[in-house]
């Protein structure tokens, strides 16, 4: 695994825990953790259960005893590492966003498609697909339980930027982060909406805003610098079959810590999900008698629910990091079965294109823009 | 009162009940109900407590013993009646929307402003302002409890059109209804957002959609006609101080019966309201210690809350029609105090202008449009 | 109507509003309000819509033009008035509790049964039966939607006594109030549990507690007197078929304003209700597929729900006092149809017997006590 | 670790994960897993990360390289193993219930107290104390945030026995399970109530019921045997300071999967917790202005909350098994600090005594019984 930040901890937990709960058709070894600082990386490897540590990702990719490269570095290095890993015949798991630009993401996608011919697999890390309630939502849509989709409402609400005196972190600078709330969390909302409905976004009209335009360069400092990414992204999207969806990504939703909400209304029912209650799914069935209709709060903890056969009895909750175990499981099983895991790089590219179209629309007076 | 439909029942209930619970500084008499059909109107007058009934609204306006004219007819007759009533020196309460066109609404507003010089009062019926939780929300914003407003999320979700085989009602035809979900329920979301924040919408980017484009002309019939209004309206708005809001009005939100939701995020806190739980207000205070922050569910039933001094002990809920009693109270007290009631016709006109700007934007590829 | 306190306002509202929304098979006239103080009663009659006022309830009962006597005085005068009214051939609606003692309630029940032979009807005012969600709950149990009842959980939680310095009101003195939380609000929990399940409580084990044993005689005063009723009542009950229920009545549930909660678990499903969200009913159906089971939040505002055909479109909420309109409707229709309204005095007596059994058990070390 | 069932998986996860997220002042090695079946135990050891496996717990206790013995066997073997382990100078973690009888639990407690003199530590596994929201609740009570405790409402609701045709599992037989819902899940409710309030239960009045009295001996079989434990336990408890609590433990609460609910009302506020939403805590503060009071939903995921400094950013949920990591952390840190971990065997014994008092009361017509 390459990268040793917060997402590195989450991925490591996924790799460590998955084999204890799921049958992966064989063992999985956590060979090598690559970071920048030798000492810190060694400590992290020790803490998270990696056999070795290093600072040279090119050397790591060259090793014959390594089969899978898991990339959890910042987005601006994804392309270089992933292209090298694919060229070396390694299966690749790349954290989202696939890249900071569409051009890079497109190149990665082409490389992934070429590599596939040689049996090399690649996957992008939209982990929230592996929340059981989300996977159940997709199954219900596919099974026709809500009929034809009529509209979508998706938002990803956080509030960690509400304090104006907080300093100008790298995530607030375009040259490092690529984009703001839109790319960081809006990408998840886009991916989930497309995943659950099974449809693609084909056009958008968007508006971006930087709510706090400048911040101190250091905590408590008196020198200020400009915030060059969006704090808030609002856009309307048209999906392939023609229906509309509203999207919001914000880091200024005071009081909402990690609220990724999706509501999907169909001709026969509706679904409702909120990541702040990730073990629950709301289901409405409008084919029931009118006097018995209502949103049902399904505790998605039954052994019959997706991924739940491996965990605890009904009613025992899963948490944030379980999605990373599910991701590790799905990737390993796909590789061993000789199948393509999902989401593919092409799907990651598709999300990038939507993000870019939103930015174009915002730059163009919110004019409707084709993806 | 002129008009005898569903809204007539609600207004009548307001007029009948208000004097029993509030001190109105004098008696209020329900003199005359005017409708189209003499027999039906007489029966309605009997049922709802009006002393007399009639079918000639011009004669009603001419009567010297009538002080207030309450207009609850369809929108296309508002202008004519209101102009005549104001000219006759009657105080006017006009149900929303003020009119079906901006031109008419503007004329009514000018008439109201002229009449005001003679002590004649006028008011438009955005009743939801009188839900105690909404009034409390406005008070809290004014008192600075959530700091500076940063963003708004407003939606009005209904689902009574989800059945495709339901016939082509007059509300689905532009010539009669003016607009669809946008004007019918979106207008409420706009008014509440402006009312609670105290700020005006100055620009919009919108998208409208007719989800079911044609419907049977009669229930079960095989002849179809086109739906000529929107089923779904999505738009982004910029308020005077520069912050953004997202708006949605839909009659296709399967499972949502009457869910007018407003969330307002500020620099020091946030508010959350849903008309389906109209006795509750969510309040988040981000100045509390981090480990004790959370959305608080305030039961807005305390005698200290707006309008509640007149009703029941804490914890005893109010319902939909209480807003009409509060409206009657506020109008009568304002007239008797020689003050202008709110919302004024000018405020109603302002909402019309926003609606029109949304339609223009939608016709123009969602391009940003000034109100 | 005899009695002019808080409950008088609620009953008056019921009588005034019911004829506007329900077809009562004929007119209803609000003839006479009887109170203690002539001036205050006259003002109340004016405010609430009664034609006349008076201070002599015996004279009222003697009037030939009065058909129904509605008793909303304190419990210690119920028996005398009701017995006289029944003897005079008047239909009687008596607010709960039927009386302060079982002996009185039993005498009233015998009188009601005798009067019934002459076509005179009587009813006790457990109004919460008329909350649409409660009526729906009963219908669902009867229809077998939750199978055989296995257990009941009922509590009535209020918090208006939490402040120790609040003075010793008459409700806290046994000689005036009869009992405390048990009789005042626990009686509602008992009635609803029996009403929804259709079964009778046959035995109890209970514990009572006075949490704040003495209070100032006057607000802010330094002289204290003893609280001689219970602040908190906890008991376990066995219903006729053998299943158990847990009950709680308290005025010290800090933060709960008027939370009457009932949960009923059956062999095929479950129901959940809370008076603080009185327009909603929770329904769980355990015959659904395991992966789709969940508590459904039914908005009990559909025209097909009990009493709702008379009110507003789906999603428009009812409030506390609507139950009084429903009560007036049911009583008038039963009288006009020559049928016995429910709940009968016998049902009111049954609740009194349960209350008495709880007190006996509490006095006897919580020993199991037959009703 | 001795024992390889469902709880063995949970404990193993705790031991494996704790060192990756918490600083334990040194390494922790998972030395040996002891089970009954050699092959299954070896497979479990491999799966869960234990270095070795075995079937002889006496041999395990004799090993010098083992410092901590974690007992997750059924309750009837706890005493024998724990006494031997303590005698051998091993620190002991014993899953709840401490034993199946008070006599055994008392003997274990004496042994633990003797061993303590030699620096040997012991702890009983009431893991739910380590849910962050529960730990926060205790902190808030201690800090006086809800004032003096006035009453407690605790229930543990499950529904996995609602199907009458399910077979007679060992948990339904007194000789194997000791007791039913009371000891299995009611024990958790008792421990949490005592833990959060800091007070002891001193008297009880209880009622037990076996709802389905006989079940097929095998799935689908036609031979039936008696259920000899309780399905439902209801009891009232008096805590040391004199206040009352209501308790319920049931496996027949249709629709409730794992709902351990605690509500605590105090003189200045209240707390509310439900294990089905384990990342949330409800807090009510009755010292706020009356118009701003309400139950606050605190997302207990802030880095400042108990245990949360080790996990994810605010808003990222924890699940069921995180409590086992917290338990492992607390035990190891206490041992290394030379301090007694909590809950002690004496606390486990105390819970046993409460359970026994409830059974005595139930056998004695619910008569009040001193613990």
Write the layout of secondary structure elements.
Four copies of one chain form a homotetramer.
Chain A (H helix, E strand, L loop, with lengths): L5 H16 L10 E3 L3 H11 L3 E3 L2 H6 L5 E4 L6 H10 L3 E5 L6 H16 L4 E4 L6 H11 L6 E9 L16 H4 L3 H17 L3 E9 L4 E3 L7 E3 L5 E8 L4 E7 L8 E8 L2 E6 L5 E6 L9 E5 L22 H16 L7 H19 L5 E2 L1
Parallel strand pairs in A: 1-2, 3-4, 4-5, 6-11
Antiparallel strand pairs in A: 6-12, 7-10, 7-16, 8-9, 10-11, 12-13, 13-14, 14-15
DSSP helix fraction of chain A = 25-40%
The pair of chains with the biggest contact is:
A-B, 43 and 43 residues
Q: Which blocks of ≥5 consecutive residues of chain A have pLDDT under 50?
A: none
- The sequence of SSEs of chain A as H and E is HEHEHEHEHEHEHHEEEEEEEEEHHE
Largest sheet of chain A: 9 strands, mixed
Strand element count of chain A: 16
Structural class computed from helices and strand pairing of chain A: alpha/beta
H/I helix tally of chain A: 10
**Spatial gap, N to C terminus of chain A:** 33 Å
Question: What characteristic shape of chain A results from the CA principal axes?
Answer: globular
User: Rg of chain A, please?
Assistant: 21 Å
Sheet-strand content of chain A, in percent, reads 15-25%
Strand order of the largest sheet of chain A: 15-14-13-12-6-11-10-7-16
* Quaternary class: homotetramer
């Amino acid at each position: 695994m390459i990268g040793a930040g917060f997402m590195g901890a989450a991925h490591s937990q996924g790799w460590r825990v998955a084999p204890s709960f799921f049958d992966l058709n064989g063992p999985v070894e956590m060979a090598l953790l690559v970071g920048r600082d030798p000492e810190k990386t060694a400590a992290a490897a020790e803490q998270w259960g990696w056999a070795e540590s290093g600072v040279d990702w090119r050397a790591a990719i060259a090793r014959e005893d390594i089969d899978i490269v898991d990339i959890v570095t910042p987005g601006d290095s994804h392309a270089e590492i992933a292209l090298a890993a694919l060229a070396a015949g390694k299966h690749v798991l790349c954290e989202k966003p696939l890249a900071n630009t569409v051009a890079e993401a497109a190149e990665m996608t082409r490389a992934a498609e070429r590599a596939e011919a040689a049996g090399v697999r690649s996957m992008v890390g939209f982990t929230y697909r592996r929340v059981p309630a989300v996977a159940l939502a997709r199954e219900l849509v596919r099974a026709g339980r809500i009929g034809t989709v009529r509209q979508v409402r998706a938002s990803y609400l956080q509030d960690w930027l509400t304090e104006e005196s907080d300093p100008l972190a790298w995530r607030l600078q375009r040259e490092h982060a690529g984009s703001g709330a839109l790319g960081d969390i809006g990408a998840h909302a886009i991916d989930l909406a497309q995943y659950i409905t099974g449809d693609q976004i084909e056009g958008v009209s968007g508006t971006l805003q930087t709510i706090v335009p400048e911040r101190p360069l250091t905590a408590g400092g008196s020198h200020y610098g400009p915030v060059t990414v969006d704090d808030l992204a609002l856009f309307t999207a048209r999906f392939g079959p023609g229906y509309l969806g509203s999207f919001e990504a914000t880091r200024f939703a005071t009081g909402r810590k990690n609220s990724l909400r999706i509501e999907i209304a169909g001709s026969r029912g509706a679904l409702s999900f909120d990541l702040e209650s990730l073990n629950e799914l709301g289901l409405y069935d409008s084919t029931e008698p009118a006097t018995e209709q209502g949103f049902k709060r399904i505790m998605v903890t039954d052994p019959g629910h997706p991924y739940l056969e491996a965990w605890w009895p009904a009613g025992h909750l899963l948490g944030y990091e379980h999605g990373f175990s599910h991701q590790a499981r799905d990737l390993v099983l796909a590789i061993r079965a000789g199948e393509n895991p999902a989401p593919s790089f092409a799907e990651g590219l598709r999300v990038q294109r939507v993000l870019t179209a939103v930015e174009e629309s915002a730059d163009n007076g919110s004019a409707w823009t084709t993806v």
